[in-house]
Amino acid sequence: MTRDVKTVRPDQTAKEAAAFMLEEDAGSMPVSDGDRLVGMITDRDITVRGVAKGHGPDTPVSELMTSDVLCVRDDEDVADVATKMGKAQVRRLPVIDSNEKLCGIVSLGDLSRETDGEPAHQAFDGVSAAGDRHKQQG
Q: Which UniProt keywords apply (predicted)?
């Protein structure tokens, strides 16, 4: 997992979140209140959902973020993490510790680099599978 994770606060603006994403070359960022994970915001949340609903660059992140975030624990088995990624069809998951504090992000790339490849293949198969039609609601 990547441990040095940049976050945005829920009271920051969509413009600030987008600037962080541009600087970090990231498509999503955790939203934290102190060291507690409270949501995730993606470039898609800002550009598709936000713009479609008439939100501007000064909209608070809290109005655009997803607050029901699937996480994994820092002590979870890699195969279980891969299964969760595949079922949820996501390429990245926040990692929290036993105190519910954000301690990293695990990605498909991490699984691919740090394992024999099987967990990454399992997750990728799930992420790539045709799923239900997504509805951009939040």
A: CBS domain, Repeat
Q: Are 52 and 61 in contact (CB under 8 A)?
A: no
Q: Is residue 136 domain-resident? A: no
Are residues 15 and 60 part of one domain? yes
Closest to 41 (Cα-Cα) out of 25, 49, 131: 49
State the residue range of the domain holding 101.
70-130
pLDDT tens digit at each of 138 positions of the chain: 888 888 999 999 999 999 999 998 888 999 999 888 999 999 999 999 898 999 999 999 999 999 889 999 999 988 888 888 888 888 889 999 998 899 999 988 777 765 555 555 555 555 555 555 444 444
Which of the listed residues 18, 44, 69 is the one where a domain comes to its end? 69
Regarding whether 120 and 82 lie in a shared domain, the answer is yes
